[in-house]
Amino acid sequence: MLIQKRIILFLIASITIIVISCKQNPITGRSQLTLFPESTLQQQSLTQYRSFLTQNKVASEAVNKDAQMVKRVGADIAAAITDYYTKKGLSKELQGYNWEFNLIDKNEVNAWCMPGGKVVVYTGLLSVTQNEAALAIVLGHEITHAVAHHGNERMSQAALMQGLSVAGDVFTKNKEQANAIFKNVFMPGAQVGVLLPNSRKHEYEADRFGMIFSAMAGYDPTEAIPFWQRMSKAGGTKPPEFLATHPSDQHRIEQLQKYMNEALGYYSPKK
């Protein structure tokens, strides 16, 4: 009986936490479980990002034209996102975002963005993007994951499942457990595990708004379809790690086509 009562109390507490912590995302309109303050995740991201850069070979903007391109296209996408949020009266949603774009010299088809606008592109991805518009599609996609709080949502789900208390400074109070969850969600190579099915929703949101932000920045959103077609072929029989949590090629293309007219409505070619 005692065990049953504890289980019941745990379930009641969990449901209460979910109800209290679920908020409607102002951009996607979808209700999300977000247990962690954005400022907390941004601070942790900054620490991990700095550590990552010291442990990997960062291409120099001074001598590497690809690094210059990543920073230039990244700055365009960041400006478009800022403009999008500002026009909707949601500037506070981007509070704490200090954008950084770095190219890592590694033959890996991958890119990612952490809370606070900390972005990495691997040189291996550039052989698949092949042009600036496709790179803009990727950056728009990855940044959408951050600004739409997808990582916060996934981390909150994992914390709830593990019974992790998120009060106070979770990365100090529950350092080992909290940091493990953070790395499994945000750091390169992370596997989504039991949260994999839910990530499909995140991917479609990232596709949709990534195309919108790319179009606003002056990059042709129609490049999204041939890019993802190239991505599907990039790994041969084994898809790139970048595609590990992504929808099937057919479903993605279908969704991209549905989103295309909306994105084109924001498109004005760069001069």
In words, what does this structure look like?
By secondary structure, this protein is mainly alpha-helical. The chain has one domain. It has helices at residues 2-21, 38-54, 65-87, 123-129, 132-147, 150-161, 170-173, 175-186, 196-216, 224-234, 249-264, and strands at 22-24, 31-33, 100-104, 111-114, 118-122. The strands form 2 sheets. The chain has a 3-stranded mixed sheet with strand order 3-5-4, with helices on both faces. Strands 1-2 form a two-stranded antiparallel sheet. A hairpin with a 6-residue loop joins β1 and β2 (31-33). The chain is globular.
In a few lines, what is going on in this structure?
With 271 residues, the protein is mainly α.
